[in-house]
Amino acid sequence: MQEVLDDFASQDNHDYDVENLVYANFWRRVAASLIDGIIITFPLRLLRYAVGNSPAEQIVISLLFIVVRWLYFAFQEGGIQQATIGKRAMKLKVTNLQGEAISFGQATGRHFAKIISAMILLIGYFMAAFTEKKQALHDMIAGTLVVEDED
């Protein structure tokens, strides 16, 4: 998969300064993820308990949870700041393989690719600790990097 992504990236004719990118440390990524998890999960869990327990209400809350998580990650990582609140707190941002901002669509693909990273006993996430560019499986699938934000 990485070869395909590298071949795709090498077809670009722009001169990018990717040599100055500092790939995000695994533990900083974990900390950012914990911050984002608290920000998203706590209010939605409160909402779940505030709403009734009927199956229909629980389905609506579950769907709301999926949509809120998707929009939280896609709008922020695909937006001007290139990072969620947790990533900004840890001074990280998400880029494409050339170090540029990603689109909403690419951020959406990255978000839903996390399902694959999680399905295989979280191994897709742990890959970020061992790959050359500190990429998790969902980063490889989406063609993204998580790098230190020098701003």
Describe this entry's structure for a reader.
- The protein is mainly α and 151 residues long.
- It contains seven helices and two strands.
- It has one domain (2-6, 22-148).
- 58% of the residues lie in helices and 7% in strands.
- A two-stranded antiparallel sheet has the order 1-2.
**Gap from first CA to last CA:** 31 Å
SSE string: HHHHEHHHE
What is the total tally of β strands?
2
Mean pLDDT: 90
Keywords:
two-stranded antiparallel sheet, 2 strands, 151 residues, mainly alpha, elongated
Give a quick precis of the structure.
It is built from seven helices and two strands.
Secondary structure elements and their pairing?
Elements: H1 2-10, H2 26-50, H3 55-77, H4 85-89, E1 92-96, H5 104-119, H6 123-126, H7 137-142, E2 144-148
Antiparallel strand pairs: 1-2
Helix pairs in contact: 2-3, 3-5
